Amino acid sequence: MATQTEHHWTVEQAREHLEGLGFLVADQPQGLRRKHADLRVSCERNEYVVEASQRLPNGRWLALHEAVDGAGYRAIDRELRPLFAERIRESERQLTSTPAPEAAIRVGWFAAEADDDYVLACVEACLLGTRSVPMPESAAAAEIDCYGFAYSELSRCTDLDAAVLSNESGARLVLNPYGRAVEHVRRSSLYAAFAAYGAVVDPLREVEAGRALMVGPDFVGPRDGRAQWAYLAHKYGRPLATAC
Question: At what angle are helices 117-128 and 81-96 packed, to 10 degrees?
Answer without folding.
Answer: 70
